[in-house]
């Protein structure tokens, strides 16, 4: 029996879908059988980020309404032999096409076959959010070092505390910019973790390559040298119970010569 | 003229209903006629009648009443009821099946344009958009999304045009993922379902062998 984890944030645009795709891929790279479930019905993206959008024939609403069997709707990612699957969201309807019971039934079904069922939650705290947490054993809350994202994450933590899942929630701080944290212009990791009172699962540095790879339909974790990719791989290892120290947030190196030219440009 | 007239030709027996007569009258005359016929013939095998209703459309209930009368006789049954008229709804349906419809609107992500009959598509279908029709699709616009011809199960339909940038081509129940199947470049690609029920790609110049019916209808 696998474990289902919902990836949620409250606020939109903080990287839920990117995180779902990358954590899923990282777990598959570790040899785990993973199913990603896109519950952002009406505005699906997970398929695009994984480069599987061309292959969608049936979706989760087709399954719920009996037009397809669950196995028919699952899309296999051919890059990871038989380890990574996607259950896509429907695009021509909205979040109300699914009820909490239906969502839970599907996740429970998937848990029998996969080690991990990762549920990509839509932004907001309406029906889509309720559907996403209905079948989840645990939650990963994604935030960025911005006050608005942290505020919304706090709201979600509150909602999850009211209806606790089986396991404790964890936090991912995404899009960290080293120099801004060093300058004290962005909230720092400890501050956010302390403020939300949720154990930290990992941090992911902001990197242009995340956008570039996602546009090509390739998760960043496949880039072995990339710091953001490493962040997601560390998160996957911690999910598997490994103890991995938190990566250092490096400031962009300034070379001797650039420092000198900086002095001159000031004058 | 009597309300019901019995006629015979090489195809069998026909019962012609007078369109000016009331249905009640028809029922009475029919029963009488069948009574006489049953008394006359000592046939042991079944006789089927075509019922010609002229310019009268029988309701389901009236059909049932006719069936009821026939069921009283052992050897008689209705083969089919043939009217000379159709409803306006059916007429529109037929007309739609027979015309090439023009579509020019943009179909965006999540939108489905559902049509009937053949479609000449001149617009833009973005990724995640879907054009769906019962007939053939001829594309002159740009397709980055999904094209479905012969919806829901017409495998004798084709999709013609520049298909290499589409996401999927579907004909009837067969689906081709363009990224995998790689149709050839150019605007003369024909997608069709072959004898093995597999969606395949060919060239317009081969349409005569691919689908003679459509080829001849296009005036080839």
TrEMBL record, chain A:
Coiled-coil residue windows: none
Entry-linked Pfam families: CbiA (PF01656)
Name of this chain's protein: Septum site-determining protein MinD
UniProt keyword annotation of ATP-binding present: yes
GO molecular function: ATP binding; ATP hydrolysis activity
General function of this protein: ATPase required for the correct placement of the division site. Cell division inhibitors MinC and MinD act in concert to form an inhibitor capable of blocking formation of the polar Z ring septums. Rapidly oscillates between the poles of the cell to destabilize FtsZ filaments that have formed before they mature into polar Z rings.
Gene Ontology CC terms, in alphabetical order: cytoplasmic side of plasma membrane; cytosol
Family: Belongs to the ParA family. MinD subfamily.
Domain CobQ/CobB/MinD/ParA nucleotide binding: 5-220
Encoding gene, per UniProt annotation: minD
Annotated GO biological process: division septum assembly; negative regulation of cell division
Binding site for ATP: 11-18
Species whose genome carries this gene: Secundilactobacillus silagincola
Keywords: ATP-binding, Cell cycle, Cell division, Nucleotide-binding, Septation
Superkingdom as given in the UniProt entry: Bacteria
TrEMBL record, chain B:
Pfam assignment, any one: MinC_C
The Septum site-determining protein MinC N-terminal domain, residue ranges: 4-81
One GO term of the biological process aspect: division septum assembly
Highest taxon listed in the record's lineage: Bacteria
Signal sequence region: none
Alphabetized UniProt keyword annotations: Cell cycle, Cell division, Septation
Recorded family membership: Belongs to the MinC family.
Protein name (record): Probable septum site-determining protein MinC
Provenance organism: Secundilactobacillus silagincola
Gene: minC
């Amino acid at each position: 029996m696998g474990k289902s984890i919902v990836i949620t944030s409250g606020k939109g645009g903080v990287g839920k879908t990117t995180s779902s795709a990358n954590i899923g891929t990282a777990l598959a790279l570790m040899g785990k059988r993973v199913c990603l479930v896109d519950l952002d019905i009406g505005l699906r993206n997970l398929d695009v980020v994984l480069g599987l959008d061309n292959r969608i024939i049936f979706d989760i609403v087709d399954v719920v309404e009996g037009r397809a069997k669950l196995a028919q709707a699952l899309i296999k990612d051919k890059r990871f032999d038989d380890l990574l699957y996607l259950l896509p969201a429907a695009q021509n309807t909205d979040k109300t096409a699914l009820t909490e019971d239906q969502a839970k039934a599907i996740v429970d079904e998937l848990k029998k076959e996969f080690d991990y069922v990762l549920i990509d939650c839509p932004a907001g705290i309406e029906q889509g959010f309720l559907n996403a947490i209905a079948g989840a054993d645990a939650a990963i809350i994604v935030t960025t070092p911005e006050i608005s994202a942290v505020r919304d994450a706090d709201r979600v933590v509150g909602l999850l505390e009211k209806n606790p899942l089986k396991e404790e929630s964890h936090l991912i701080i995404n899009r960290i910019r080293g120099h801004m944290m060093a300058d004290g212009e962005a909230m720092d990791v400890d501050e956010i973790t302390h403020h939300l009172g949720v154990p930290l699962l990992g941090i992911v540095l902001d990197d242009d390559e995340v956008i570039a790879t996602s546009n090509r339909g390739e998760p960043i974790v496949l880039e072995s040298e990339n710091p953001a990719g490493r962040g997601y791989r560390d998160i996957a290892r911690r999910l598997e119970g490994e103890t991995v120290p938190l990566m250092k947030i490096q400031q962009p190196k300034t070379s001797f010569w650039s420092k000198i030219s900086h002095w001159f440009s000031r004058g | 003229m009597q309300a019901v007239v019995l006629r015979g030709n090489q195809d069998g027996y026909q019962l012609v209903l007078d369109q000016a007569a009331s249905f009640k009258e028809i029922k009475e005359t029919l029963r009488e006629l069948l009574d006489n016929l049953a008394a006359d013939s000592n046939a042991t095998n079944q006789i089927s009648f075509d019922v010609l209703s002229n310019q009268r459309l029988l309701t389901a209930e009236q059909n049932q009443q006719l069936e009821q009368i026939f069921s009283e006789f052992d050897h008689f049954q209705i083969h089919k009821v043939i009217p000379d008229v159709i409803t306006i709804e059916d007429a529109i349906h037929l007309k739609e099946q027979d015309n090439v419809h023009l579509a020019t609107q943009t179909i965006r992500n999540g939108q489905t344009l559902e049509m009937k009959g053949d479609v000449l598509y001149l617009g833009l279908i973005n990724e995640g958009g879907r054009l769906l029709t019962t007939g053939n699709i001829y594309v002159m616009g740009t397709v980055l999304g999904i094209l479905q011809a012969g919806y829901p199960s017409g495998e004798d339909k084709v999709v013609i045009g520049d298909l290499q940038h589409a996401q999927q081509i579907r004909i009837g129940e067969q689906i081709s993922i363009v990224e995998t199947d790689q149709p050839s470049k150019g605007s003369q690609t024909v997608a069709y379902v072959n004898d093995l029920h597999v969606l395949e790609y060919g060239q317009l110049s081969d349409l005569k062998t691919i689908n003679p019916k459509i080829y001849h209808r296009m005036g080839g």
